[in-house]
Write a structure and sequence with these properties.
With 259 residues, the chain is an alpha+beta fold. Helices cover 29% and strands 14% of the residues. The strands form four sheets. Strands 8-1-10-9 form a four-stranded mixed beta sheet. The structure holds iron/sulfur cluster (2 copies).
Length: 259
């Protein structure tokens, strides 16, 4: 599953060449980031978390967040599927009212109504997705990252039903022919497999921050160790008002939104 056969690889190569002439600015940036191969000691944390500074997101990027989404999806071989019923997403945006369903009310401040919020897997402290997986294809690491072993996924979708955040996608079809460009350094998936954000575990291993953090030109995404009192994430949490999604459910999300 993780390796492509020669014929598929050549076909992708051809598609890539065809696509080179029409790269947008964000796509060029995503290309560059893929090529900047990090080679430092692994980043080690006790409890990884992300803070998304929504003011920075909205100020400069108008909340479209195209750079970080594109960089993530290209690096992780996430296919482009237009049909929303079959699309595969690791990171994307949704309006405030959808992201914070429990906060929905008539008198929400105008500045926030309908505003796009970046969403991804929350790498929950108590992930229901991992609890219900019958094959342990989803599991939680010591450093808090909720990982997937695609080879163990049998496509039962129990994890999708259990995740209250819609953070998981199912491959209704073979995603490989739908990749705009193959990243040969990251595994591809196949039909019938679930996938989601992995907090860029492969990059942490190589001493680099998650790609979305690096790709965001506004510096709106901050990643760090919650157990380290001097980390940037802890500094922001001390000084800014932050929200998490559906805290009342007790899953313990580790993605924070600074408003
Ligand atoms: S956000 Fe969903 S997929 Fe991610 S760890 Fe929490 S329950 Fe699991
Ligand atoms: S942490 Fe990595 S996998 Fe997760 S959304 Fe960001 S770039 Fe994608």
């Amino acid at each position: 599953m993780s390796k492509m056969d020669r014929r598929s690889f050549l076909r992708f190569g051809g598609l890539c060449v065809l696509g080179l002439g029409v790269l947008s600015g964000a796509e060029v940036l995503a290309e560059k980031q893929l090529k900047a191969a990090p080679a430092s000691p692994a980043l080690v944390g006790k409890k990884w978390a992300m803070v998304i500074d929504m003011k920075k997101c909205w100020e400069a990027g108008k909340g479209e967040c195209r750079d970080c989404i594109l960089a993530c999806h290209r690096a992780h071989n996430v296919p482009d599927i237009a049909n929303p019923k079959e699309e595969v997403k690791w990171i994307w945006t949704e309006p405030y009212e959808e992201v914070f369903l429990d906060q929905k009310q008539e008198y929400t401040a105008e500045g926030i109504q309908g505003k796009p919020f970046l969403v991804l897997c929350n790498h929950c402290d108590n992930p229901p997705c991992a609890r219900v997986c019958p094959t342990k294809a989803t599991f939680k690491r010591e450093d808090g990252i909720v990982m997937m072993d695609y080879h163990r996924c049998i496509g039962c979708r129990f994890c999708m039903a259990a995740c209250p955040f819609g953070a998981r996608s199912f491959n209704f079809r073979d995603p490989r022919p739908l990749l705009p460009k193959l990243n040969p350094d990251f595994p591809t998936r196949e039909m019938g497999v679930v996938e989601k954000c992995n907090f860029c575990a492969e990059r942490l291993e190589a001493g680099a921050l998650p790609l979305c953090v690096e790709a965001c030109r506004q510096g709106a995404l901050v990643f760090g160790d919650l157990e380290d009192g001097n980390s940037e994430v802890r500094t922001i949490l001390r000084s800014r008002f932050t929200m998490r999604r559906r805290p009342e459910l007790g899953t313990g999300p580790n993605v924070y939104y600074a408003i």
